[in-house]
Design a protein that fits this description.
Keywords: ATP-binding, Nodulation, Nucleotide-binding, Transport. By secondary structure, the protein is of the alpha/beta class. The chain has a domain of about 130 residues: P-loop containing nucleotide triphosphate hydrolases (Rossmann fold, 3-Layer(aba) Sandwich), CATH 3.40.50. It contains nine helices and ten strands. Strand 7, helix 6 and strand 8 form a beta-alpha-beta unit. The longest helix has 18 residues. It is globular and about 50 Å long. About 35% of the residues are buried. Bound molecules: adenosine-5'-triphosphate. The site of adenosine-5'-triphosphate has 11 residues, from helix 1.
């Protein structure tokens, strides 16, 4: 059974569809990359999956359970990180993780927090106020927060946006290593097509709220007669080639 099944998902904001009949599924341990131009509906899709936005139509099932009916039970088994969601800035790094560990009822909190701080290279700065973190450190803290409940499905909205190439690579490697170690399924949105090509088992190209193309990067490259995902993107969107 897939860990996630989305059927005919539609979200209309003030008469304008942000998502139109989106259907896909996610298998245990699978890495699904979501790409698409600004306004394609990527964040709306993740917000629907988190129960933050109520779909106009369609069905979302995690672990075979309907999201609306089993929201709390499902949220305990998934998690989320975004470069754009803030954590309380007046708390220290460690205190932030304690808040979330207690909210999730994480067993052996102290050990779990120490493990995540070390894994994400935050141990030395555990007593720093969160407001003093650089964007790369903040993203790693958001990831630590997102891993606190050992999620079976992790949703990541542009986790590498705004990071320098070294930090972005570090974050990617951490996510991939953790995913492979734990068999966690990941949905990852990004505008960095090289990183999506490297990481994803399958990608989903959204455009104007619809799925324009879907499949493993290599299969899409064959289908679009493209060298890489970037070419697939431009060909699928019928962007004219650069002169
Ligand atoms: N709360 C809202 N109210 C009204 N319109 C919204 C709302 N949230 C999103 N939209 C609209 O829905 C469409 C999809 O937006 P969304 O943020 O999902 O796109 P995106 O693919 O994540 O874009 P980006 O790459 O710029 O982050 C846009 O036209 C946006 O203006």
């Amino acid at each position: 059974m897939p860990v996630l099944e989305v059927k005919n998902l539609t979200k209309v904001f003030k008469g304008q569809p942000a998502l139109s009949g989106v259907s896909f599924s996610l298998e245990r341990g699978e890495f699904l990359g979501i790409l698409g131009p600004n306004g394609a509906g990527k964040t709306t899709l993740l917000n629907c999956l988190l129960g933050l936005v109520t779909p106009t139509r369609g069905q979302i099932r995690f672990f075979g359970l309907d999201l609306e009916e089993h929201l709390r039970e499902i949220l305990e088994r998934i998690n989320f990180a975004s470069n754009y969601v803030g954590l309380p800035l007046s708390l220290t790094v460690e205190e932030n993780l304690w808040v979330y560990a207690l909210l999730y009822g994480v067993p052996s909190c102290r050990e779990r927090i120490e493990r995540l701080l070390r894994l994400l290279d935050l141990w030395e700065m555990r007593r720093e106020k969160t407001r003093h973190l650089s964007s790369g450190q903040m993203m790693r803290l958001c990831l630590a927060k997102a891993l606190i409940n050992d999620p079976e499905v992790l949703l990541l909205d542009e986790p590498t946006a705004g990071l320098d190439p070294t930090m972005a690579r570090k974050v990617r490697n951490l996510i991939k290593a953790y995913q492979q170690d734990r068999g966690m399924a990941v949905i990852f949105t990004s505008h960095n097509l090289l990183e999506l090509q490297d990481l994803s088992d399958r990608v989903l190209l959204l455009h104007q709220g619809r799925i324009l193309a879907e499949g493993p990067p290599t299969v899409l490259c064959q289908r679009f007669k493209a060298q890489n995902l970037e070419e697939v993107y431009f060909k699928a969107l019928k962007e004219p080639p650069l002169c």
